[in-house]
Design a protein that fits this description.
This protein is an alpha/beta fold. It is built from eight helices and twelve strands. The strands form two sheets. The chain has a six-stranded parallel β-sheet with strand order 3-2-1-4-5-12, with helices on both faces. The protein starts with 11 loop residues before the first strand and ends in a 6-residue tail after the last helix. The structure holds NADP nicotinamide-adenine-dinucleotide phosphate. NADP nicotinamide-adenine-dinucleotide phosphate binds next to β2, α2 and α3.
């Protein structure tokens, strides 16, 4: 790929919402490759992108396939979060329908640590708690239904934005990463946390895992959803290399 790419070619579509998506968008933009980042539009104040951004759902597989037909991006990079279960399926199906080259950019999961309890989903995580547990929940504000069913436990739900209509046993803790080990230990101690529930998101946010380990707290880790078959990159540079094999932007 070269910085002399034709600016009139349609942009690569990056399904975004992650640090990796931003890094890839920055890298490709610097190379002169037109890029369009797509956000779900659910975050009120998303981190800025170094490229044009569109926002909002496409309308399922059908809507995304229609969008791809209309805009003809030379490639689609699905750089959504490892737990964006629906979007990665939609991306795979719509790309296959339209013959659009697609790559899943997915950071590696955290290696399993001693003492972790691995569970397949949030319902299993909620079911694994003993009565009376005080839980730090870092699984996001959208999916609290399973924990609402456990009024015998107390939950500290760490989120960036407020969550409406929570039952009294789920209390939000509004804050933004990054968090240091000292921050995490202080939070676990101040809130008298007995259990941590997290998704295996991977990436740099491991201080909570280190803090729980330091305090000897049980950690319940929700496993990732299955990844649709197809090419996979674990970091932005590998995605750039994959694009080069398609000769996108090459002279
Ligand atoms: P999801 O359940 O897989 O997707 C739900 C719907 O949101 C999709 O069907 C799609 O709507 C729309 N959508 C999702 N990502 C989109 C994107 N990048 N551009 C346009 N539309 C998108 O996803 P989610 O778990 O709600 O996550 C939403 C966004 O937040 C994702 O982009 C993800 O990268 C980011 N995120 C998620 C998590 C998490 O834990 N799930 C954590 C951090 C960031 P249509 O069907 O109408 O196209």
């Amino acid at each position: 790929m070269s910085a002399a790419s034709d600016p009139s070619q349609p942009p690569i579509l990056i399904l975004a919402g992650t640090r990796e998506a931003r890094a890839l968008a920055a890298h490709l933009s610097q190379m002169g490759q037109p890029v369009l980042a797509s956000l779900a539009g659910v975050t009120r104040d998303p981190a800025p992108y170094p490229c044009p951004v569109r926002s909002g759902g496409f309308g399922g597989v059908h809507g995304l396939a229609a969008w791809l037909q209309a805009h003809r991006p030379p490639a689609l990079i699905d750089a959504t979060h490892p737990f964006a279960r629906q979007m990665q399926l939609n991306a795979a199906a719509a790309a296959a329908q339209t013959g659009t080259p697609r790559l899943r950019l997915l950071r590696p999961p955290w290696p399993t640590r001693q003492g972790w309890q691995l569970v397949p989903d949030l319902a299993a995580a909620a079911a694994a708690l003993p009565p009376g547990a005080r839980v730090l929940l870092t699984t996001g504000g959208k999916e609290v239904a399973a924990f609402a069913q456990r009024p015998d436990c107390h939950f500290v739900l760490r989120v960036i934005e407020p969550v409406a209509d929570l039952p009294p046993h789920i209390q939000t803790h509004l804050t933004r990463p990054p968090f240091s080990l000292a921050d995490e230990i202080a939070l676990l101690r101040d809130q008298r946390i007995t259990h941590l529930i997290t998704k295996n998101a991977g990436g740099s946010g491991t201080a909570k895992l280190d803090a729980a380990e330091h305090l000897g707290l049980p950690v319940i880790v929700v496993d990732r959803p299955p990844v649709p078959p197809g090419p996979l990159a674990q970091d932005p540079q590998t995605a750039v290399d994959w694009l080069a094999t398609l000769k996108i932007g090459a002279n």
